[in-house]
Amino acid sequence: MAVTPSPTTATGANVTPKTRERPKFSGVIIHHDFRGRFSIRYPSDWSFFEIRSDEPVVEDVMPEPAAAGGAGKERSAEKTRGRLQKPKRGQRARMAKPADRPVAAREGVGFAPDPRDPHTVFTIWVSPLGERVVAEDLEDLRAGVDEGLRSLEDCQIEAADETILGNLIRFERIYTFRERTSPDVPGDVRKRKQWLLYVDTWLMCLTWQGSSVEEYAYWFAMANQSFLTFEIQEALWFYTDRELAAELSDKSVGPSMQSVFGASNPSAMRSEPPGEKEIGRVRE
Questions:
Q1: I want to staple 123 with a disulfide (CB 3.0 to 4.6 A). Which of 15, 40, 110, 185 is the partner?
Q2: What CATH number is attached to the domain comprising 191?
Q3: Residue 143 sits in which domain range?
Q4: Statement: residue 225 has pLDDT above 80
């Protein structure tokens, strides 16, 4: 029986017949939150969609525990508006314009490198909190984050970090977990890098998830640029200044941050218009 030799290089090493090319940028888009709370950059050829829960915000009632919900699965009430497909030029900007709608329990955007793999995705969503968060809340919030992670099956934390800037608190977690589609199926191991930022009366959650450990690593260099270029609106930093915390705690002193950024048209607080702007494209 004849044996077909495996492909070799000049040195005799085996060569993989098909090598997956490293991902690269063809362009970058800046997305500005339609309420003016943040901006973020992402690859221009990634599929884009909106996140908005159907659960309304009731005044003086805090939504489902933010830390636990942030580390776990998305609530079933949450729906994305639009499919994982690349929209036509100008479609994103129209969707992101300010609208006369109340603040939802969870609203944001997501983008994915391959619409055929919805579990490999970068998402950022914002939830209103029932009260202002200060640096002294770190221990209680950490307990909530840890509780949320423990609720995930086979969760293994690879890295954990906390940062405090004034009254802004950021939790960073990198972890794997198992997601089942059926009790009788073993499920797939996902990997995430996640930021949970408590900014005065808002929770901002940034998550990069790979449908597998391999997919997480393959796209990570591109997805990580979204973390590195994420910016919080300057006015929000003002509200996390500890020297002003006592004044801001008095409701008679100035507007609350939610009343400003929850308005239907908070354009006066923005340094950039809502929507998106393509800032570069690589020509072949």
A1: 110
A2: 3.40.1000.10
A3: 30-265+274-281
A4: yes
